[in-house]
Write a structure and sequence with these properties.
seven-stranded mixed beta sheet; alpha/beta; single chain
C-alpha cells in the first residue's frame, strides 16, 4: 500500500480534499495532540532540523504544510532576519497559526497563506530553503510534491523534510506498533471530534517510503546530496537535499 492510497475517510474522493477536511476538523486539538503523542519530543526534532537549515544562511524560506506554524515560528526565532512563507491546505490550521504568529510578534516576518503543495503558486527559484514537517505523507502524489518543492528552490538551496517513521529495531518496533495502533487512536477519540484522523496517522506513517526510498524520490526530483538523519530510535527521520547550482 502506497501513502497516496491511504486516505483519512474513504477511497472514493481525492486525498487532497480529505486531508484538507481532516485538518480543518482537528485544528483546535492539533497542537495538544502533537505534544501528547510525542511526549514533547517533537520540539527537539524541529530544533535539529532548524539547525540544519540555519547552516545554509537562508534569507527566505517556504514552509510547506505549515499547519499551525510551529516550524515557521522556530525558524524565525533561530535564524536572524529570515522571512518565512507558510502554506497549508487547511484554513482552520492557518487561522490557529496566524494567531500564534501574532502572539509571537512575528507577523512582519511570517506570511501564512492557503495553497496546494502540488501546485505551488510561486515562480521557479523563489526560496533559499524549503521545509516540510510531518506533511509529505499527506501529499496526494509524492513525486509531484517533491518536484514542486525542487522547482521553487533557488540553486544551492536546501530541502528539509521532517517525517515520522516506523522504527526498525526488534525491541522498539513492537512497542511502537502497540502505542500507535491503540493508544494514539484512543487519545485522539477523547481529545478530537474527528474519530478517524488519529487512526489515519499510523496508517499513513506505515505506508511511507523510508530511508533509501525517500532519498531516491529526492534524486528523481533533481536534487543532489540527499541525506538521512534518524532520531529517537528511528521514530523520526530528517531528510535533506540540495538543488544543484
Amino acid at each position: 500500500m502506497t501513502p497516496e492510497n491511504i486516505k483519512p475517510y474513504d477511497s472514493s474522493r481525492p486525498k487532497t480534499e480529505q486531508v484538507e477536511e481532516m485538518f480543518d476538523s482537528i485544528a483546535p486539538a492539533y497542537d495538544f495532540m502533537n505534544r501528547a503523542m510525542t511526549f514533547g519530543i517533537d520540539r527537539l526534532w524541529r530544533r535539529k532540523a532548524v539547525k540544519m537549515v540555519a547552516a545554509t544562511n537562508p534569507g527566505h524560506i517556504l514552509d510547506v504544510a505549515t499547519g499551525t506554524g510551529d516550524l515557521a515560528i522556530q525558524l524565525c526565532r533561530s535564524i536572524g532576519g529570515v522571512a518565512v512563507t507558510g502554506i497549508d491546505l487547511s484554513e482552520e490550521m492557518l487561522r490557529v497559526g496566524e494567531e500564534k504568529v501574532k502572539k509571537a510578534g512575528l507577523a512582519n516576518r511570517i506570511t501564512m497563506r492557503k495553497a496546494d503543495c502540488l501546485a505551488l503558486p510561486f515562480p521557479d527559484n523563489s526560496f533559499d530553503a524549503v521545509t516540510v514537517a510531518y506533511g509529505v505523507r499527506n501529499f496526494e502524489h509524492l513525486d509531484k510534491g517533491y518536484a514542486e518543492m525542487a522547482r521553487v528552490l533557488r540553486p544551492g538551496g536546501m530541502l528539509c523534510v521532517i517525517e515520522l517513521a516506523v522504527p526498525q529495531g526488534k525491541l522498539v518496533r513492537p512497542l511502537y506498533n502497540i502505542y500507535t495502533r491503540t493508544a494514539i487512536p484512543a487519545i485522539g477519540r477523547l481529545i478530537s471530534a474527528d474519530r478517524r484522523a488519529y487512526s489515519y496517522l499510523p496508517e499513513s506513517i506505515a505506508a511511507m517510503p523510508r530511508g533509501a526510498e525517500m532519498l531516491e524520490l529526492m534524486r528523481k526530483a533533481g536534487l543532489t546530496q540527499p541525506r538521512l538523519t534518524e532520531l529517537t530510535f528511528g521514530t523520526c527521520a530528517i531528510y535533506t537535499a540540495r538543488k544543484p547550482v
